[in-house]
Design a protein that fits this description.
single chain; globular; alpha/beta; 2 domains; seven-stranded parallel β-sheet; Enolase-like, domain 1; TIM Barrel
């Protein structure tokens, strides 16, 4: 196993309620078998990740020297190794990753991403994304002017478009009730779902009993046990899976399959991943939920040339079918 340093610059900082993100840095994991290789990557993200860049490297080195088992690694380090293994196996079988997964379209529908920089940028972003064929808008919230942003959305989002609101679990229960009652009235059918409106299952259960809005669980659903809680308590219609944060492709397939069996839609999302992981997650999304609009339209946030092929076109990301 080889470990290579990597970094990718963003075209401009991304502002969320958790952090401001200007670049993505981390490690590429390369598995070799003869002349064949498989690559994975880990780019720890402050505010979301359980490990730092340095901790990830230390774990990779320990695993490389057989000082630690795979299951003792953090989920994110496991994800990088798991992805490299899947890519290597696909190459050995002379298949693309998508083919190795079982097939699917060579593109996925994606939502637009609108951060919390300003209301002006929110308006401009929707206009630009709309001109490029996107019609589902994921809007970051959790700011002092959330109410004004909601009013703006109600005025500029068209009847045939959808909105996904994402405060990253930053709202109190009381605020979420008030805000979402107003959102439901202002946006009506245009509101597709709210992602992690509150930070825990207890508050989410109370919220669901008061305000009937569709819910997507993201950070609230990191395991099969979390999903079983969502199913048993009827806490959501969607789960958002970030493969890089939960252990990679194997765990993603397991959770998404269980969700589908219980009529819960899976949305695959990126943690502003680099080209290796983003391409892989597109293949996974195409395989497990080809009709769903996914959170994988992030390539245009980067200034890196490797991302250009995955910039959304007409609301879809077309991804490379080769296994490298």
């Amino acid at each position: 196993m080889r470990i290579e340093k990597t970094s990718y610059e963003l075209a401009q900082p991304i502002i969320t309620s958790k952090a401001q993100i200007s670049s993505r840095e981390g490690w590429i994991v390369v598995l070799d078998e003869g002349e064949l290789t498989g690559k994975g990557e880990i780019l720890p993200l402050e505010g979301w990740s359980s490990v730092t860049i340095e901790e990830a490297y230390s774990q990779l080195v320990s695993y490389k020297h057989s000082e630690i088992s795979l299951l003792e690694l953090s989920d994110e380090v496991q994800s990088a190794i798991n992805l490299a293994s899947w890519n290597l196996e696909a190459t050995k079988n002379d298949k693309s990753l998508l083919e190795h997964l079982g097939g699917g379209p060579n593109c996925v529908k994606v939502n637009a991403f609108l951060d919390g920089s300003s209301q002006r940028n929110l308006r401009r972003g929707i206009e630009n994304y709309r001109a490029n064929g996107l019609s589902v808008f994921k809007v970051k919230l959790g700011f002092k002017d959330d109410q004004e942003r909601l009013q703006l959305l109600s005025e500029i989002v068209r009847e045939d478009e959808k909105v996904r609101l994402d405060p990253n679990g930053s709202w109190s229960l009381q605020y979420a009730v008030t805000f979402l009652d107003r959102a439901r009235k202002l946006l009506d059918d245009r509101l597709e779902y709210v992602e992690d409106p509150v930070a825990n299952f207890e508050d989410l259960e109370k919220l669901r009993s008061i305000v009937p809005v569709p819910i997507a669980a993201d950070e609230l659903c990191k395991s099969i046990n979390d999903l079983n809680t969502i199913i048993s308590e009827n806490l959501g219609e969607y789960i958002v899976i970030k493969p890089s944060l939960i252990g990679g492709i194997d765990q993603t397939l397991k959770i998404s399959s269980h969700a589908a069996e219980n009529n819960i839609q899976t949305v695959i999302s990126s943690t502003y991943d680099g080209p290796i992981a983003l391409q892989a997650w597109c293949a996974v999304a195409s395989n497990v939920a080809p009709e769903v609009t996914h959170g994988l339209g992030t390539a245009d946030l980067f200034s890196d040339t490797q991302m250009r092929q995955m910039v959304p076109k007409a609301g879809k990301v077309y991804f490379n079918l080769t296994s490298d």
